[in-house]
Design brief:
- By secondary structure, this protein is mainly α.
- It contains 5 helices and no strands.
- It is 78% helix and 0% strand.
- The longest helix has 31 residues.
- 28% of the residues are buried.
- Bound molecules: hydroxy diiron-OXO moiety (OFO).
- The site of hydroxy diiron-OXO moiety (OFO) has 7 residues, from helix 1, helix 2 and helix 3.
Length: 162
């Protein structure tokens, strides 16, 4: 049976992953409305990935004899001033999530919950990838600046995400 403190902390993260999905879906909607269909596709896939992260927590909590608990979700921001600003917000959000996962792994270690520690290893690696992917997109934004053709090309490139 899972320790109650660990169960509660996993549920907080479960809801943060769901909230991440909402944020990226809101970014996708904003991009679509503004005609950036490539960025919208990238964010839609990102939102799906966050839902799959949330479901990993859901399954793990159940497997450990706990109960997934849903929290009220904060309404996500609706609009961003530019694609670059949205991706900057995405990076800040991923950094926040990485810190949160690290703290969760610290709690698992403190409680000597080896199953939770092993489960969280995947997320620690995943966060390295998440941050690095968005950082390299932001590097491209820095290179192209306000060049419309550059933004058009990047929008097209990100639209090819599988
Ligand atoms: Fe779930 O990795 Fe982003 O938030």
């Amino acid at each position: 049976m899972i320790d109650k403190q660990m169960e509660d902390a996993l549920n907080v993260q479960f809801n943060k992953e769901l909230a991440s999905a909402l944020i990226y879906a809101a970014m996708a909607a904003d991009f679509s409305v503004k005609g950036f269909n490539g960025f919208a596709r990238w964010m839609t896939l990102q939102a799906k990935e966050e839902t799959s992260h949330a479901m990993k927590f859901y399954e793990f909590i159940l497997d450990r004899g706990g109960r997934p608990v849903f929290s009220a979700m904060e309404k996500p921001q609706e609009s961003w001033n530019s694609p670059q600003e949205a991706f900057e917000a995405a990076l800040a959000h991923e950094q926040f999530i990485s810190k949160s996962i690290d703290e969760l792994a610290g709690l698992a270690r403190k409680l000597d919950d080896k199953a939770a520690e092993v489960f969280l290893h995947w997320f620690i690696s995943e966060q390295v990838e998440e941050e690095s992917t968005v950082e390299s997109i932001l590097d491209t934004f820095s290179l192209i600046g306000s060049n419309a053709q550059g933004i058009y090309m990047l929008n097209k490139e990100l639209g090819s995400r599988e």
